[in-house]
Each structure stands twice: as structure tokens, then as C-alpha cells.
Write a structure and sequence with these properties.
The protein is an alpha/beta fold. The protein folds into two domains: 3-94, no CATH class; 105-312 and 323-332, 3-Layer(aba) Sandwich (Rossmann fold), CATH 3.40.50.1820. It contains ten helices and seven strands. It has helices at 3-25, 31-42, 45-59, 70-94, 130-135, 156-170, 181-192, 221-225, 231-241, 287-297, and strands at 113-116, 140-142, 175-179, 201-205, 248-252, 271-275, 330-332. A seven-stranded parallel β-sheet has the order 2-1-3-4-5-6-7, with helices on both faces. The longest helix has 25 residues, at 70-94. The chain starts with a helix and ends with a strand.
């Protein structure tokens, strides 16, 4: 079953439950209770996200990332609650096919772009980016990763096929962008298919490169792999230490409610860029992210990858050192 079908079923169940609650309490004269209960049923993620933000604040204590203010956390929570309604209540279940992959004949000689979504998402996640990409004539492919709860390694074949489509259509190595788990899927593909010389670069947004504290509650194959410093992540870092990798740009945030502590979303040797006050999904709406994508798409082809090696000196749970060099770490206001 596709994620879109799963979400449509979940939304239908929530709507029926909310309607049933109102139908029971309203005739009995409990209008306020009926409305508040229906709202809680319709927005069950709001209190759950509040708990996530409380946990991230505690987990980020001592992390090298800037400390978020209470106001930043509150704004990030509100933005993510509302954003989740748009993303998981509309784009993913109903609009995943709104924009088709774009490989025009006139795209020959231009750099292509591969978009890879994260855990429990689909290609509808990227819908806000498509108008700008299409206006700029960017050859672009957006994947649906299947199976939804499979191992991250399972996605390498689909990524390889997409990279080949873009390279064949444009004649140039594409730029790869991954959100959350999508960044790990790209790293897994690089190792399995020796893709280091086949891409222009990799941009990750909120990717748990060293795992996430929340991973301890995961039960799916891909979720277990994203536990903080999991054996799978250790093996991936070990493989990367033995081979060159392309340029990485990693966006991360101290208000990321899914991937924390914050610097677990960075890589040593990468261009690590901190986004203040941005929650996990909402990071994709920060203008700095798409601006950087467009800038790298316009670059000339780079030389073969050099010595930058994600996985070397990876941050461990007890480390207090930043997972990036001071020269490459930047903050986007």
C-alpha cells in the first residue's frame, strides 16, 4: 500500500471519529466539550509535537548548536503543527502526483535535480518547490520511496535508476537533495553504486546523519537504522571512510523536533548550515535552502570528489565537539 493511500485511510478514520464525538456530545448539551474533543481528534499531532519540542530542548543541552529561545521553540511548534496539516492532510495523500517529473528535450546540457523525501513521506513533500524549478527549466525527478517501512538500503535501486534518467537526459551529473531519511538513502546509494563521481553534490535537510534521540522509539526497519549511532550508521560511516565522497551541504536546526540533538544532522567536512527557529518539515520552506539548491544547479561541473569524508570523526553521544569545521559552519538568519 502506498503512503498516500495509508494517509487517506487515516484521515477518513479521524473524520469519522470526530463526527461521532460531536454527534454524541452535542445533543446532550455539551457543545464546548464536543468541539474541543473534535479538535483534539482532528489534530492529534499538536500535543505530540509539543512533547517532541520539550524533549529536543532537553536533548540539545550541551550540543554545539545555538540554544533556541522559548519564543523560537513556540513559533517552531506552531508552524510545524499548521504545516503538518497542509503536508500530511493535503499534499501527501491527495497531491503527490500534482507535478510530474520534468525531463524536457531542451534540458540537454543543463544540470538535473533529484529530490528524495524522508520517513513516512512521498514526493508531494516537494510541491512548493516545483513552480520555481519549472520556471527555471530545471530537469527534475522526485522519488516515492517504497516500501514505506523498509530498510534504507532498499531505496538504493530506485535512486540509481533516477540518477541514470537524469544523467542520460541532461548529459551532466545531477545534484541530489534529501530531506530527513532521504539524505541517508542518498549516502547508502553512494556506497552501493559507487556514485561519488556520478553526481555534482549532495544537499541534505534535517538528515539524522548520526541518528536521532527519537529513534529509540522506532520499530520499523528504517526507523531502527536511524537510532542514535546505530550499528547501521556506524557501518555506513566506516564504508565512507574508505572512499572519497562528493561535496555535502547539510542544513540543520536547533528547533528540529525529529532529528536531535541538533548537530546529529551535520557531517564532518561538510558545509554545515544552521537554520534558526526551523522545525523538521518547515525547514524546507526556508528560502536559504532552495536558494542554495538553485545556486548549485547553476555551477559548472566540479572536479572529481576529494578528501572530504562524511563518517570520519563522526560525533558520538558523549562528544561535545561540533560535527563540522568552524570554517564551514554557517548560520542562516
Amino acid at each position: 500500500m502506498t503512503l498516500a493511500a495509508m494517509l487517506r485511510g487515516l484521515l477518513a478514520g479521524l473524520a469519522l471519529a470526530a463526527a461521532g464525538w460531536v454527534a454524541y456530545w452535542w445533543p446532550r448539551g455539551h457543545e464546548v466539550l464536543a468541539l474541543l474533543g473534535a479538535l483534539l481528534i482532528a489534530l492529534p499531532h499538536a500535543p505530540l509535537m509539543a512533547l517532541e519540542f520539550m524533549l529536543l530542548r532537553r536533548a540539545n543541552l550541551g550540543d554545539p548548536a545555538p540554544t533556541p529561545t522559548s519564543a523560537e521553540l513556540l513559533r517552531a511548534w506552531a508552524g510545524e503543527v499548521l504545516g503538518a496539516v497542509r503536508v500530511f492532510g493535503w499534499r501527501l495523500p491527495f497531491r503527490a502526483t500534482r507535478y510530474a517529473d520534468h525531463l524536457p528535450a531542451e534540458g540537454r546540457g543543463r544540470r538535473g535535480l533529484l529530490l528524495v523525501h524522508g520517513f513516512v513521506c512521498n514526493r508531494g513533500l516537494w510541491n512548493p518547490w516545483w513552480p520555481r524549478l519549472l520556471d527555471a527549466g530545471v530537469p527534475c525527478v522526485a522519488l516515492n520511496l517504497q516500501p514505506v517501512f523498509g530498510a534504507i538500503d532498499d531505496y538504493a535501486d530506485a535512486i540509481d535508476a533516477a540518477v541514470r534518467r537524469l544523467s542520460n537526459a541532461t548529459g551532466r551529473p545531477p545534484l541530489l537533495v534529501g530531506h530527513s531519511m532521504g539524505g541517508l538513502a542518498l549516502r547508502a546509494w553512494l556506497q552501493r553504486y559507487a556514485g561519488q563521481t556520478r553526481v555534482h553534490g549532495v544537499i541534505t535537510v534535517g538528515t539524522p546523519h548520526h541518528g536521532t534521540w527519537l529513534g529509540r522509539f522506532a520499530f520499523s526497519a528504517n526507523g531502527v537504522q536511524m537510532r542514535w549511532d546505530s550499528p547501521w550508521l556506524g557501518a555506513l560511516a566506516g564504508a565512507e571512510a574508505r572512499a572519497p565522497v562528493p561535496r555535502f551541504t547539510c542544513f540543520y536546526s536547533h528547533c528540529d523536533n525529529i532529528v536531535f540533538p541538533a548537530t546529529t544532522a551535520t557531517l564532518p567536512g561538510a558545509d554545515n548550515r544552521h537554520l534558526r527557529g526551523q522545525a523538521h518539515v518547515h525547514m524546507l520552506q526556508h528560502p536559504a535552502v532552495l536558494d542554495e539548491v538553485m545556486a548549485q544547479l547553476a555551477e559548472p561541473d566540479c572536479a572529481p570528489p576529494g578528501a572530504a569524508q562524511p563518517g570520519v570523526n563522526s560525533r558520538s553521544p558523549g562528544s561535545t565537539a561540533p560535527a563540522s569545521t568552524s570554517a564551514s559552519a554557517r548560520t542562516s538568519a
